[in-house]
Each structure stands twice: as C-alpha cells, then as structure tokens.
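Suppose you are handed a protein chain with no further information: no name, no annotation, nothing but its sequence. What can you learn? This example shows the usual starting point.
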Amino acid sequence: MDQIAVATFEKDMKFEGFLLARSSEQRSSSNGSKYLDMTLCDRTGEINAKMWDGTVTPPKAGGVVKVRAQVTEYNGRLQLRINKVREAEEGEYDLSFLVPCAPYPAEQMLKEITDTVAAMKNETLRKTVEEMLRMAGDRLLYYPAAQRLHHAERSGLLHHTSTMLKTAKAVLQVYSWLDAELLFAGVIVHDLSKIREMKSDEAGNVNDYTVEGLLLGHLVRGVTQVREAARRMGIPEDDEYVLLLEHMVISHHGEAEYGSPRPPMFPEAEMLHWIDLVDARMNEMGGIIRRTPAGAFSEKIWSLDRRVYHPHYAADTGADAGAEKPARSRPDADAAYQGLL
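A reasonable first move is to predict its three-dimensional structure. Written in structure tokens, the prediction is:
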C-alpha cells in the first residue's frame, strides 16, 4: 500500500490514505460545540486526530477509515486535522500495513516460551505454567500487552514475555545463584491474565477493558489463575512454589502506587519487577526514537514524564532506529514492520 507512514509525519504535511481507528468518540468543547476525537494508526505509530464537525458519526474502534487531513501541532505534539473521513471498504487497503504487530512470528515466540517450560525440572512450576498457557489458549497468539504504551501491538503479549525471557537468561549469567526456573515461570505468567483484563480483536486492537479487568485487574486475577492452574494439576495447596509464583504476579509492579499490594519480597520477584520495567521502557523508547528525527527531542512523554532525545547514532537509518530486528525474514502477511525495518 503506497502511502505516507505515520512515523514519518511532519508538521504541515498533507495526508490522504487509510488508517486504523484505535479509538473514536464524539466530544464537546468548552463552548458546547461537538467534534470528533480519534486515535489513528498504522503499523509504524499512532497519532491523535480531530475533526471539527459534530455531525459526523464516530467510526467504530478497530475499523479502517480513509481520511483526508493535514498534520498540525498542538502542545508540542503532532496531530491530524481531518477534513474528510469515511469507513474504508474491504479490498481498498492492506491490513498488514495498518496493524502494529510484534517483529517476530507469534508461533516462533510461543515456541521459545513453551520450550523453556518443557525443560523445567521443577514439576510444580512446569505443570502450573503449562496449565496457565493452556488456559490462555489461542488468544495468546494475537493479544497485545497493553491498550496503550508498551507492546500495544498484535502479539504484543508474546513479544513482551519472550524478550523478558531472553533478558532473564542473560541476567542469570551474572546472578547465577537465582532460582532460574522460578524466575522463568514468573516471567511467563506475570501478565497472562491481561487476556482476561482487556477486550482485543484478532488485529490486536483493544477498545475496552472487561468487567473483571476493571474490578480486579490482571494482578489479582493472575493470582487466582495461578492457584486455579495448580489445583487443576493436582498440586497441593501448601506447595511453597505456588505461593512464590502468586507473590511474583501480585508484586511485579513493584509498589502500591503502581498497583502492587506487596513489594517484591524475595530475589526472583525483585528481578522480575526490574526485567518487566526495563523491557517496557525500552519498547516504549524504541517507538519514540523511531518517530523522532535524529538530533531532535520528542514531545513530552506523559508515561515517562520527560522528553526523549534521538542521538546521532553512527548506523542510524531513520525509521530503523530503535527497532528490533527479527531473527529471520518473515514472508507472511502478518510480517511486523515489513518494509520498515
């Protein structure tokens, strides 16, 4: 599909093409007039869009729209001012260009995880994690890790988990006294309950949270799922490894301010917290670098509470900066960033 990528938008640029609507709603301004507020994206990035016409029906979230617009700037951030918008018709667009997705095939990432689990000698951990993966089912192949921010992409949950697993294996080269299998198990299960926390379509687009996601969240639901998986596998309730795994799930955000009712209270739980944080931050910063020109600062990133600088890297190739490179080429239609990397 021949159109300008969102990651390359510049102020005053005109754009006409197809974008995925992550969110879309009609709002009211301070003077009472209505307008259309949307978050639009392709696989390279997303941008807020406004249409100052309150008579236009908001397109459905997760749908593809064709827009005619101009790139403007508001509070230091690029924004689209929409002149025309309509729902796209099937066959008009290439979905693989529009859907942000992980840079590796979902099946490859899942195999890395399941191979790690199969090699575990600790039966409590192996059986519990295997059952939790089974409970997650096929949705794990396409679920994102978040609605916004890090790994908000098709197969993002697998991407986040598999890169964390690689980091854990590297960390064990330094801290070899840690219980490797306990750390691996914590990495694999810590976010699995996001599948029950968010509503995602098969394109990896989250348009809302579930009732249990809003009432409980993935930390609390994750603890109950660890216990349920262990029970299903006939593991005694007093098995300490089940308790340790539950603690790793409920403490991996680190502090009560970020949702953890308990801080990490043993080394593997502490390491899980930091690996999770590093992976989330690096994924988010990689995305910022890809959409920020070399030698420039990004807009202020609210989740980081700072602006991010894109250095003049020696091997910087613009859109490639900050991007993970797949281990091998990917010919299928789901190829993440294909043509961008």
